[in-house]
Design goal:
CATH class of the largest domain: Alpha Beta
Number of strands: 17
Number of helices: 9
Structural class: alpha/beta
Shape: globular
CATH superfamily of the largest domain: Dihydrodipicolinate Reductase, domain 2
Largest sheet: 9 strands, mixed
Strand content: 15-25%
Radius of gyration: 20 Å
CATH architecture of the largest domain: 2-Layer Sandwich
Oligomer: single chain
């Protein structure tokens, strides 16, 4: 399938490299508001640099990978759909539920598909974790924890301001990895209760290029809450850009007969550990290939060809977005927030695949 890429910033190289690993996709063209960035990637990866309008007018391109900033995800996605092409977006799907729903509804009306990062849950770590739970290694899941705690990207990212603008923050930036992994393992979320806050009114960039730049903080940067899943499991979650150091695990799930340690969902690998009843932690053999970014779009292109449902799909991304936005909503109202949407757990990856294979 011929694809185009809109957005040639920092993350794009991972997508270009991923496309090199498969015969399912061929990147035909790329574009960016900074055409010098598009030309640099086009030269490096042997594709065509062009304008957005030219890319969307190309009838040979069937799917567009949208790597723009979060606030532009829906607007660009709608342009892609209006051009008659499928769209696969970087996370999050959108920054508010109303426009995200418009994206999903437009795709449905036009008979097109929406896909969305993260696709890390298609890697060895999360797939092995799900396999362990589905095999009954910890019994019925009762509770769990999910923690992403750090002090923000202003110390290293070349353009950190958007992380503190609408669409940024620890929840919409890092939350997609955690909530998607949990929904993949446990199923959809029923309701959320949370308290959120902002630790600092501004951040000061310390990267070499922007050292000293003052960044106003427009969003909450420490979010703590509880997710009740439809299967009854209760997960305690903290997403924070206000913590310098901690020793909390990424994700743990506690069941009737044991506990499951899930690896960092911002990666594709392991380790995965299980402790049964009063036993010690035991490493689980990773039963799937690691893969890397672009595997979600590869799976989407393959699914379009075969007619099956792709795994990193719009329904999943929409549900995850509603869950993430519920944290601030719950904090503002002082009430539980019922999650109106639901979604199916994506089909697990089959055993026996080689790296970059999908089925």
């Amino acid at each position: 399938m011929n694809i185009g890429i809109i957005g040639c910033g920092t993350i794009s190289s991972a997508y270009f490299e991923g496309a090199r690993k498969t015969e399912v996709l061929e990147i035909k063209a790329c574009t960016d508001l900074r055409m010098e960035a598009a030309h640099a990637q086009a030269e490096k990866y042997n594709c065509q640099a062009c304008t957005v309008d030219e890319l969307l007018a190309d009838d040979e391109i069937e799917l567009v990978v949208n790597l723009t900033i979060p606030r532009a995800h829906v607007d660009v996605g709608l342009q892609v759909l209006e051009s008659g092409k499928h769209v696969y977006s970087e996370k999050p799907l959108g920054v508010d539920i109303e426009t995200a729903k418009q994206l999903i509804d437009t795709a449905s009306e036009k008979g097109l598909r929406v896909g969305s990062a993260p696709d890390t849950f298609l890697g060895a770590g999360i797939q092995t974790s799900r396999q362990a739970l589905d095999a009954g290694k910890i019994g019925r899941p009762i509770a769990g924890t999910a923690f992403m705690c750090g002090h923000g990207p202003e110390g290293w990212h070349p353009n950190p301001a958007f992380f503190y603008d609408i669409g940024g923050g620890p929840m919409l930036d890092m939350g997609p990895y955690y909530v998607t992994a949990l929904v993949n393992i446990l199923g959809p979320v029923k309701r959320v209760a949370a308290i959120t806050t902002k630790g600092f009114e501004e951040r000061i960039a310390t990267s070499q290029a922007l050292n000293g730049l003052r960044i106003p903080v427009e969003i909450t940067t420490h979010l703590t809450g509880t997710l009740e899943f439809q299967n009854g499991a209760i997960i305690t979650m903290i997403m924070s850009f206000d913590i310098w150091r901690h020793s909390l695990p990424c994700i743990e799930i506690y069941g009737e007969t044991g506990s499951l340690q899930v690896p960092d969902p911002n990666g594709f690998g392991g380790p995965v550990r299980v402790a049964q009843e009063r036993g010690e932690w035991e490493d689980q053999a990773l039963a799937f290939p690691d893969n890397a970014r672009m595997i979600g779009a590869i799976d989407m292109a393959s699914a379009i060809g075969s007619g099956r449902t792709h795994r990193a799909n719009g329904s999943l991304a929409y549900h995850v977005l509603e869950v993430m936005l519920a944290f601030d909503k719950s904090s503002e109202t002082g009430e539980h927030v019922k999650i109106e949407s639901t979604t199916e757990r994506p089909n697990p990856m089959p055993l026996g695949l080689e790296e970059w294979e999908v089925d």
